[in-house]
Structures are given as structure tokens and as C-alpha cells.
Design a protein that fits this description.
alpha+beta; 362 residues; hpI Integrase, Chain A; 3 domains; globular; 7% strand; DNA polymerase, domain 1; four-stranded mixed sheet
């Protein structure tokens, strides 16, 4: 069997003790081999190289070997290193992943070539102001600001930046009520509206709605469900998603499948164990937009109030909280701080089962 071809120029060791990478017919020296600085320069250079269609950037000086070892650490070095080392830890269907991707691109576009040590509170505030100027709410702008600080925290952890940068960035106070608009809090949806909507959905979309209402799952967790992730070894089935919102923090999740959820899911368990349980009528994977639009159109056809997929999670959570209490709700939603030991996992699953039994039924 032939070996797969390496498509990216390699990070290499030079006899001088420096790291280097060869792009086209030119060597780029990156600084002392094995250091965080040399890797950050390597990742940033690769990003520039790939963005240009695998064309090496032109150096300022006409040398065959371009020396970047003395180049200061710039914002683009921090973002490139974060993209390589941290971003893969976030599930691709996680909203945080998409927001980090957009923020990294924004930082590179606006400040990429500036020294990272010069990125301070005023520049952070200017970026935050662009979010509110575009009509984003206060909580979104504050959350984006915290994510930017997290990107620079990574730079400190890699010793690419001095710790005082984080002290400076954290000195920027968050937006307070009245300084930007606040969106109304998300609420649930009446079960009558859900019942009226179901006949106007496809069988697959209707099953997803029933499953989500019975389990309080996030829509994204439905989109990646496969038969192989359904644990059927015990009396109660459990959905154990590989990728979920808290997976990057080492947490596990077990969603009980019983009652309405079991009846809704069973017809979709007979395909390839590793294939998606749910696909659109076109055979493509579901995503948040396709699911939201399908429900919106069905609700309009049913002549009932507009509602969104996430409203199902709120409805289920409130019903479980009223019937079984806050601890069971946390276990079902996956918000509890669970130990990695088997004992605590079993306790959580027991509470989740109790919560699922209290979930609303159609």
C-alpha cells in the first residue's frame, strides 16, 4: 500500500540549531528549533502560504534563506498557534468553534501584522464596539471579548506573550445593561403549538422534534447522532455523543432514550451503525439552519405561533425542573459538574433517567 503524500511543508531542524521550513525554492528560518516562538512563526507562515494558493510570501530582503528569528511575535503568530493547538479541541458543531474561527480571522485581518504585545484594552474595546454597531446584543459582544482574551491567554501559556497583556485586557470592564441592547430571554414553546406543527413536518423532522422534546437535547446533538453512539446494553438506552458542548472540558454525556424518545428513534436505528440517524429529504446532513427553517415553515402552515428548535429544550427543561427538581434538570441537560469516576457517572445517569421520565409528552 502506497504511503500518503505529505501536502504541507514540514517544520525542520537546521544544523545551526534553528527551525526552518522550505516554501517553494526558499528557506525560511524561524528561530531556535523546538521553541514556541518558532512553531508560532511556522503556523503563521503556513497559513499565509496556503491562503496564497501555496505560493511562498515574498521576503523584504532578497535573500535565499529568509531569517524570521528576530521577528517580533505578532498577533498573527498568536492566532495561528491557537488555530493549530486549541481550535481542534472544540467540536465542529459547537457554536464556540465557529465563533473562534471568525474571531481569529478578524484579528488577523485588523491586527495580524501588529506586535502582539501592543494589543491592549483600547483595541479590544474597538473590536467590541464593532459588534454592537452591527446590532449584536450586549451578551454577544461581551462573550466575543472574553473569547479574544482567551486567544491571548493561549499566547501567555505558550510563553509567546508576557502575562501583563492579560492583566491589561481583563482591565476592560464588560458592557453593562443600558450600554448595548439586550435580546429578550429565550423561552419555551407551548405543547399545543408543537402538536399542531408535527403533521406539517417530514417524518424525519417530526421524529427529531419528538426526540428533542423528550430528551432536552441541543439541536446540534441530533445532527451528529449515529446508531453506534446509542448504548443498548442495559434496560435503558443511552445516547453517548462523542462531540458535545462540554467534551472539550473532559466531560461525558449520557442522554436516556425512553418513552417518546425511544418510539421516535427506533425506526432510524437500522442503517449503517456509523452513518447519521437523520438526514434531510435530499440525503444531506441536517444543520441548524435547515432544521430551523423546516420548523418555521411547518408552524406557519399550521397557523400557530412561530417557534424555534431551541425552544423545545427550554420547554423540556422547565417541565423536568417542575416535576423532578434542579439536580435532575442539570443531569439531563449536561450542565452538572461530574467527576470522571464511574461511580459519579452512574449517579448522573440515574438522575438523567429520572428526569427523562418527567419530560413532557406529546
Amino acid at each position: 500500500m502506497s504511503r500518503s503524500r505529505i501536502t504541507q511543508p514540514a517544520y525542520q531542524f537546521h544544523v545551526s540549531g534553528q527551525a526552518k521550513v522550505r516554501l517553494g525554492h526558499r528557506d525560511f528560518y524561524l528561530g531556535k528549533h523546538g521553541t514556541p516562538e518558532s512553531y508560532a512563526r511556522y503556523y503563521a507562515l503556513l497559513a499565509e502560504y496556503n491562503a496564497a494558493g501555496k505560493v511562498a510570501p515574498e521576503p523584504a530582503e532578497a535573500e535565499t534563506a529568509v531569517r524570521l528569528a528576530d521577528d517580533v511575535i505578532r498577533v498573527k503568530h498568536i492566532t495561528a498557534d491557537f488555530r493549530e493547538r486549541v481550535l481542534p479541541d472544540y467540536a465542529r458543531n459547537d457554536a464556540h468553534h465557529g465563533r473562534f474561527v471568525a474571531l481569529l480571522s478578524l484579528l488577523e485581518k485588523r491586527h495580524g501584522n501588529e506586535p502582539a504585545a501592543e494589543f491592549g484594552p483600547r483595541k479590544l474595546e474597538a473590536i467590541r464596539d464593532t459588534f454592537t454597531a452591527k446590532g449584536n446584543c450586549r451578551s454577544y459582544a461581551n462573550d466575543q471579548s472574553r473569547k479574544i482574551v482567551k486567544i491571548f491567554e493561549h499566547g501567555v501559556a505558550r510563553e509567546l506573550l508576557a502575562p501583563d497583556r492579560i492583566v491589561a485586557l481583563r482591565a476592560l470592564p464588560p458592557l453593562k445593561p443600558g450600554q448595548a441592547k439586550d435580546n429578550p430571554k429565550r423561552g419555551g414553546v407551548a405543547l399545543e403549538a408543537v402538536r399542531a406543527t408535527l403533521p406539517h413536518l417530514t417524518d424525519t423532522a417530526a421524529a427529531m422534534v419528538k426526540l428533542q422534546l423528550a430528551t432536552a437535547m441541543r439541536p446540534s446533538e441530533l445532527f451528529t447522532m449515529t446508531p453506534a453512539q446509542i448504548d443498548r446494553t442495559g434496560a435503558t438506552w443511552f445516547y453517548r455523543p462523542k462531540d458535545h458542548k462540554t467534551a472539550s472540558r473532559g466531560k461525558t454525556k449520557a442522554v436516556p432514550i425512553l418513552g417518546d424518545a425511544l418510539r421516535a428513534l427506533t425506526p432510524f436505528m437500522f442503517g449503517d451503525p456509523n452513518d447519521l440517524c437523520f438526514r434531510t429529504c435530499k440525503g444531506t446532513p441536517w444543520n441548524k439552519d435547515a432544521y430551523r427553517i423546516a420548523i418555521a415553515r411547518a408552524a406557519k402552515a399550521a397557523k400557530c405561533d412561530h417557534w424555534t428548535p431551541y425552544a423545545l429544550r427550554h420547554t423540556a427543561a422547565q417541565a423536568v425542573r417542575d416535576a423532578a427538581g434542579a439536580e435532575c434538570t442539570q443531569a439531563l441537560l449536561g450542565h452538572s459538574r461530574l467527576s470522571t469516576t464511574e461511580i459519579y457517572a452512574q449517579v448522573s445517569e440515574a438522575r438523567a433517567v429520572e428526569a427523562a421520565m418527567a419530560a413532557p409528552s406529546l
